[in-house]
Every structure is written in C-alpha cells, then in structure tokens.
Amino acid sequence: EKHLVLLRDGRTLIGFLRSIDQFANLVLHQTVERIHVGKKYGDIPRGIFVVRGENVVLLGEIDLEKESDTPLQQVSIEEILEEQRVEQQAKQESEKLKVQALKERGLSVPRADTLDEY
User: pTM higher than 0.70, yes or no?
Assistant: First the structure.
C-alpha cells in the first residue's frame, strides 16, 4: 500500500510501506520526498527509507484512484528547490523584521535554537 508520512521536521515522504513495528518505526520502499511550495510540488527520489517512530507525525494511506486528482502542478526538482529556497529567504526576512519591531518596542524574543527543550 502506498502511504504518505509527515515527519516531525516538516518533510513529507511518499512510498510503499514495507514494515512497521510497535514503536511506529517504518520502512518505506520506492520513497519520494515531496516538497510543496504554493500550488506547485516536486518529488525527489529517495529509494528505501527507514524512519524512526519518534519522528512520525502522521501516517496515512493514499487512495491510488484519487492520487492524480490534485489541483497542484508538478514541476522539476530544480525548480521546486529554487522556489523553496526563495520562500525560506522571505520567511527569514519576515522574521528579522518582526524581531526588529519587537526590539524597538522594548521586547525580546528568545531564539528557538537557544531554548532548553526540558
């Protein structure tokens, strides 16, 4: 069965589920990493993929009959990676402006990489 897996880091994998255990550890075969940007998407072939259960956010079966009924446009890997890079840069600029505006008002936001997880 073809499945979609959403990972904790935000990546989306699509592949054939070959194995799963009680910890939700997965083995996916003929896996592709799907990148979405706006109304476009691109698939990067990844082959056999082993995923630790702690990284799985969502696992769902894909209906093969409805798979092609998508309003999204498939583009090349290079094009989707470039659009993803542009989107991430815009997001970083927006975040910088937000932090700057907060600083001007006397507020500070701790950076996510400096926060203690526990």
Answer: yes
What are the backbone dihedrals phi and psi of residue 114, each rounded to the nearest 5 degrees, phi first?
-100, -5
Q: Where are the beta strands (DSSP E) in 38-116?
A: 40-51, 56-61, 73-74
Nearest to 19 by CA among 46, 33, 1: 1
From the candidate CATH numbers 2.30.30.100, 3.30.450.40, 3.30.200.20, 2.60.40.10, the one assigned to the domain spanning 2-63+71-107: 2.30.30.100
Tens-digit pLDDT profile for residues 62-96: 888 887 777 888 888 888 889 989 999 999 999 99
- CB burial of 84-111 (b: ≥16 within 10 Å; e: otherwise) equals eeeeeeeeeeeeeeeeeeeeeeeeeeee
